[in-house]
Fold this sequence. Notes:
Blueprint: E1 3-8, E2 12-18, E3 24-31, H1 36-51, E4 59-63, E5 66-67, E6 73-75, E7 80-83, H2 85-93, E8 99-101, H3 102-113, E9 122-127, E10 131-137, E11 140-141, H4 173-176, H5 178-185, H6 190-198, H7 204-224, E12 228-232, H8 240-250, H9 254-259, E13 264-267, H10 274-286
Parallel strand pairs: 1-4, 4-8, 9-12, 12-13
Antiparallel strand pairs: 1-2, 2-3, 5-6, 6-7, 9-10, 10-11
Helix pairs in contact: 1-2, 3-10, 7-8
Amino acid sequence: MKIIGVDVGGTQIKTGVVQGNLEVFHRDERPTPGTAQDIVNRVHEMVRDAWRHAPGAPVGISFAGTWDNEGCVTANQLGLKKAPVKRMLDEAFGISIPVENDAVCALMAEHRYGALKGTETGILLTLGTGIGGGVIVHGQPLRGHQGLHGELGHMITHIDGHACGCGQKGCWEQYAAARALGIMAAPMSTKELVDRVRDGHKSDVWQQYIKEVTIGIQSLMMIFMPEVIAIGGGLSNAGEIVVSSIREAVENTSAFKTYCPFTRVVPAQFRNDAGIIGAVALAEGNL
Ligand SMILES: [Zn+2]
């Protein structure tokens, strides 16, 4: 069966027609407009184009921002505040279209098809501009009050630390997101630094960064006792060195040695297509 996945991000909207083997066909990408109505109209227009290749295919949407269980989204990077986007999408399409936060969609993609497939308890961490991802508990994405998803990246790891866009100080993502590594590595680029580490050079900056990542993972392990931790996001494109460095550091902690010797640290399966595949996982779960 063909399913259309839509990934609405801060700067681009991407669509793809996905078949059973998870290959993405008929990709399209257009800029994300500035208002909720324009975003909805553009998504509708792009899905109508995709339907020319896959008539009547079910649609799922991965959408950046915080979603409440009324289908309203708040997304600073899109300038949306409690915008009733779910209702607007359903009106535009004339049918109910499943839509979900992008981190939850990426988590669903890994749980349904990827690195967390079959796990009862697992964690996806995406190291990018921030830290995203989520937690699978009892074989389901963990949710809070009113269906809200948690924000792993805003776990505080530094008392009175760097100010974060969320209003707190010392959030994990201020120290352990790929962006933080970019700042730490300067004037070297992240790529240069990772290349040097891969070539066997010792790097205090890399060690420090891995420590910042690991300190958060230790807490997550102690709270959730996960079978698997999958590492994704932009930084994982740098290759196995990222995951193997994190794995080695994690396996040196008491959280691992004493409490969770079963936890496996693995690469996430879906990289640039996590949004589209996540939207497909959402649509398939709704069929
Ligand atoms: Zn924060």
